[in-house]
TrEMBL record:
<dbReference type="Pfam" id="PF21982">
    <property type="entry name" value="RecX_HTH1"/>
</dbReference>
<dbReference type="InterPro" id="IPR036388">
    <property type="entry name" value="WH-like_DNA-bd_sf"/>
</dbReference>
<dbReference type="InterPro" id="IPR003783">
    <property type="entry name" value="Regulatory_RecX"/>
</dbReference>
<dbReference type="Pfam" id="PF02631">
    <property type="entry name" value="RecX_HTH2"/>
</dbReference>
<feature type="domain" description="RecX third three-helical">
    <location>
        <begin position="101"/>
        <end position="139"/>
    </location>
</feature>
<comment type="similarity">
    <text>Belongs to the RecX family.</text>
</comment>
<feature type="domain" description="RecX second three-helical">
    <location>
        <begin position="51"/>
        <end position="91"/>
    </location>
</feature>
<keyword id="KW-0963">Cytoplasm</keyword>
<dbReference type="InterPro" id="IPR053926">
    <property type="entry name" value="RecX_HTH_1st"/>
</dbReference>
<protein>
    <recommendedName>
        <fullName>Regulatory protein RecX</fullName>
    </recommendedName>
</protein>
<dbReference type="InterPro" id="IPR053925">
    <property type="entry name" value="RecX_HTH_3rd"/>
</dbReference>
<comment type="function">
    <text>Modulates RecA activity.</text>
</comment>
<dbReference type="Pfam" id="PF21981">
    <property type="entry name" value="RecX_HTH3"/>
</dbReference>
<dbReference type="InterPro" id="IPR053924">
    <property type="entry name" value="RecX_HTH_2nd"/>
</dbReference>
<feature type="domain" description="RecX first three-helical">
    <location>
        <begin position="5"/>
        <end position="44"/>
    </location>
</feature>
Amino acid sequence: MPSPALNYVIGLLARREYSEFELRCKMQEKGLSEQEIDDTLAFCQQKNWQNDHRFAENYLTYRAQRGYGLTRIKQELQQLKGISSTIISEVEQTLELDWHAQALLVLRKKFPQYATLTDLKLKQKIWRYMLSHGFKPDHFAHYIGQGEIEDQGY
């Protein structure tokens, strides 16, 4: 099935993973027909060159390492990458990331004095930062202003 559409998609996938939605958008920008897009994507998925489940796993792991929480990553996957909530839930269950440890790493990096804070404005700033980065309050609230937390190997 050599075609310009397939060559284009293979070139994209050779550089990085893409979701089906992203590839579909890129191919539509190129002016390809819907039938050509569907055929090309089906062929790539059959060969396992494109896989939304694998894409979601890689994306979730990458964004978590970059300091983002589950809520924000889920939102990005759904709205920006076009991944279904079913796939996101499956990936979330299989990866089993420790979001408490992730939140602690972010706190230590961005706010080194998080454990000894008494100023309400600074605590609010930390809360806003952590929530905007997709962490749930139960992942980080118990660390803020509670005295020194002993290192638990995180």
